[in-house]
């Protein structure tokens, strides 16, 4: 997706520097060893005011540029810190782009929980990706549920190209009423997560 050969679509003058910098930062710097996503580093350990020539000339359209300044948002002159590496290019041939996070809950008896865990495992969810708790329906706070959601969001943030599927054994495990379920569905959608309920007919 991020083909460095491709000229930037945004060629407005104000965005010019930024997209130049973005393209340059696709490459590691052979001069100062800055990794992709990071600005160049001066010998004094500060963010360099411009990218090293050997780095920006790796971008074909900048081959003849004399100087590619470091954009202000990278903080030129300030102490250098590694930036965020650009996301890995999307590979459509990835064997499995689905990551499942499971959640199971029961109110008291362990046996019931076990059958939920088995069912989730059969759906291909590794046990360390299944969050479970024994907790009464009347209790509002569900620590493992929150943990499951947090994990799903984190997985999604680290693997944006993957489908992260929040899998619950039964709909009634998620919430007690329609409002709670709607709120959860909205939350999942907002974070790019997918909800799956293998036995969705069982309320
Ligand atoms: Zn450099």
Could you explain the architecture of this structure?
This protein is an alpha/beta fold and 203 residues long. It folds into two domains: 15-74, no CATH class; 98-196, Rossmann fold (3-Layer(aba) Sandwich), CATH 3.40.50.1390. It is built from five helices and four strands; from the N terminus they run H-H-E-H-E-H-E-H-E. The protein has helices at 13-24, 53-56, 110-122, 143-158, 178-190, and strands at residues 98-106, 130-134, 163-168, 194-196. Strands 2-1-3-4 form a four-stranded parallel β-sheet, with helices on both faces. Strand 1 (98-106), helix 3 and strand 2 form a beta-alpha-beta unit. The longest helix is centred in the last third of the chain and has 16 residues, at 143-158. The chain is elongated and about 70 Å long. Bound molecules: zinc ion.
